[in-house]
């Protein structure tokens, strides 16, 4: 425990570095403003002396002194905004003269009512002077607390020296001088507060700078990730639209088109486990892997998933992902589907309802089985629509704690299956998700892609 106290005081009383001094200089005006407002508001407490004994009997005599305190504190308040004189000088001058005026009020009181009971009563009132001493601790300069203790010591010694003889002789030295211990104890406590505030200020500034730097890095990472997504491109024989949203700046949901010979195309969508930077990086790596694997893998979902499974398990063994790959063969008018632990493909043959297509496949990154998926093939015709998505869409909760779920998604799609095109379908889905389900934001990375066969 002693060592803990030693470490604590060593940390707060260490000599600030040049960078910390610069930070303190930047923060100083804000804390000076805090002190100025605080001391202006709290000085009105002195007017309570007009209503307590023995001052209630001489209120008209002490009122000018109290008004003088108000004028000085008001000048300090104005000076903070005009700054025609160094604010630090005004703070110390205002404090010295104001507190001196209040001590004169107490001297007036003991001279007017020189009794021992009044002496002890005034001593209890004088305890309240720890307030102006501690108020200096709202600033970043520890000397304020020390200087206030020095001039309060001078005021109090003068007060004791001018005590009526009968009180000086009948009261103990402890009762006369113990307030000096109170003032210096308050000053010491105030100094500790100031140094602790200095440390907190520099720490908070450093943290805010680190956060700002991280946000800049995240914004850069977002721009890089956005550049990896397909832009406004034309895919032969397909129209498409997509939506993506992440509760973080970047996420692990990703899709890409793999354009092949004879106008055929592959569509790859993945959901990397986790959130944030690491999952986004893995998703970007998977894009590179899909783009650079041999051509024969791009036309065979099972072989493509087997390759990704192996790379995730061996090269990135802390990560796993679900994925779905659609290979559109427009020569033979067929679609080959490979699903590795991903939500099922939802499709609607032209003029029909949307429905799920069940497929078998293991999540990537664990080498659970080889190959990790079983392909499924189905014919395609013009007007067929396909909906692939990540599970953030169906797992996010509305205001009542209910998830949309697969059944809710299917019902939603079928309510709008007669939308004229995929963009209109997307807009209808998003509008209803927001207005009916309250899902304008999602708790997890969310993405969906709507495709329609044109040929």
Describe this structure in words.
Residues 235-453 form the PPM-type phosphatase domain. InterPro entries: Bact_Sigma-Reg (IPR052016), PPM-type-like_dom_sf (IPR036457), PPM-type_phosphatase-like_dom (IPR001932). Pfam families: SpoIIE (PF07228). Keywords: Hydrolase, Membrane, Transmembrane, Transmembrane helix. The chain crosses the membrane at residues 35-56, 62-81, 90-107, 119-136, 143-162, 174-195. This protein has 455 residues and is α+β, with helices and mostly antiparallel strands. The strands form two sheets. It has a five-stranded antiparallel sheet with strand order 1-10-9-6-7, with helices on one face. Helix 2 (18-42) crosses helix 9 (173-228) and helix 3 (59-82) packs antiparallel against helix 4. The chain is 55% helix and 14% strand. The chain is rod-shaped and about 115 Å long. The model has no long low-confidence stretch (mean pLDDT 88). It has two domains: 2-211, no CATH class; 229-453, PPM-type phosphatase domain (Phosphatase 2c, domain 1). The protein has 15 helices and ten strands. The longest helix has 56 residues, at 173-228.
The CATH superfamily of the largest domain bears the name PPM-type phosphatase domain
Tally the structural domains: 2
CATH topology of the largest domain, by name, is Phosphatase 2c, domain 1
Unreliable residue stretches: none
Secondary structure class reads alpha+beta
Examine the secondary-structure arrangement and name the CATH architecture of the largest domain.
4-Layer Sandwich
Task: Please compute the radius of gyration using only Cα atoms.
Answer: 38 Å
Overall geometry comes to rod-shaped
Read across the widest sheet, the strand sequence of neighbours is 1-10-9-6-7
